[in-house]
Amino acid sequence: MIYRTDYNSPIGIMTLASDEENLIGLWLKGQKYHGEEIFDEMIEKEDILVFAKTKEWLKNYFDGKKPDIKLLPLAPIGSEFRKEVWEILCEIPYGETITYKEIARKMAEKMGKPTMSAQAVGGAVGHNPISVIIPCHRVIGTDGSLTGYAGGIEKKRHLLEHEEGTDSN
């Protein structure tokens, strides 16, 4: 059974999904690859411990604190390749960025390959099912451009500016 609840954040309504023990999804309303397209039926339920922990984490994050990702039981659903990419995303420090090319290099190294496609990495980053917490917004193009955020480039810009301490809100 998959449960869901909503959280009203400074960047819009977020849907949280859980298997009752782990957070398996966190999507921005209207985001590409939203969880409701993935799960046919999610049951509304707020009184789940992981939802309370996640909402507290998000409150701290949006209050400018730097909550530790390890405080939450995360269990994103995806292929082994995607999970490996998402693990790399979890290592990106708050307020810092990494390029798709750098992630591709790290993945090639992990897999014992000479190279890895940055486009394949981009697909995995784009399908991150736990937005904000697994910080796919911290991935940028090689030239420093803000590319490819399923929640929209303006939200990506807002999150990066928030982490730099320069957001206007």
Summarize the structure in words:
- With 169 residues, the protein is α/β, with parallel strands linked by helices.
- The chain has two domains: 3-71, Methylated DNA-protein cysteine methyltransferase domain (Double Stranded RNA Binding Domain, 2-Layer Sandwich); 80-164, Winged helix-like DNA-binding domain superfamily/Winged helix DNA-binding domain (Arc Repressor Mutant, subunit A, Orthogonal Bundle).
- Helix content is 37%, strand content 15%.
- Strand 1 and strand 2 (12-18) form a beta hairpin.
- It has helices spanning 35-38, 49-62, 80-90, 100-111, 118-126, 153-164; strands at 3-9, 12-18, 23-28, 43-44, 98-99, 139-140.
- Helix 3 packs across helix 5 (118-126) and helix 4 crosses helix 5.
- The mean pLDDT is 91.
- The strands form two sheets. Strands 3-2-1-4 form a four-stranded mixed beta sheet, covered by helices on one side.
- Its EC number is 2.1.1.63.
- The active site is at 136 (nucleophile).
Name a few traits of the molecule.
169 residues; alpha/beta; Double Stranded RNA Binding Domain; Arc Repressor Mutant, subunit A; four-stranded mixed β-sheet; 6 strands
Radius of gyration from the CA trace?
Answer: 15 Å
The percentage of residues in β strands lies in 15-25%
Terminal residue distance: 37 Å
Major sheet characteristics: 4 strands, mixed
